[in-house]
Amino acid sequence: MTTQITSNIKISVSTSYEGTYYKADQMLYAFSYQITIENLSSDVVQLQTRHWNIFDSLNDIETVDGDGVVGQTPIIVPGEKYIYSSGCMLKGTLGAMNGFYTMANFSNNTIFKVQIPTFKLVVPFAVN
User: Fold this and answer.
1) Do 52 and 20 contact (CB within 8 A), yes or no?
2) Is the pLDDT of residue 128 over 70?
3) Closest by CA position to 120, among listed 87, 93, 96
4) Neighbour-count burial of 36, counting CB atoms closer than 10 A to its CB (0-12 exposed, 13-18 middle, 19+ buried)
5) Element (H or E) spanning 78, and its range?
6) What is the reported pTM?
7) How far apart are CA 108 and CA 104, in angstroms?
């Protein structure tokens, strides 16, 4: 598991290799990841947007921006966690992801960024 704390928001990431898939006659490697967002602060916060950098050993870096995560913009009260799962497909057997969430602090009406730590996406047979 990979973990990082920014502005009293703890991001923890675990990953799993899900197998190979074919799309338009091209083999892709599927990965899932589970992210836990824990509010260690004394303020109520809301996740508003996400920014991802997806690194693929056989592809250019892909950038993904959007509102919320998995269709939600969760409000996280102090001491609580929000957990979600998602995934990505890579052309290569090795990759990584990182990025940030834009969060709103309801106590002081500010917007801040929370870093998502870099986590590896590796097909198990690629590391033998």
Assistant:
1) no
2) no
3) 96
4) middle
5) none
6) 0.93
7) 9
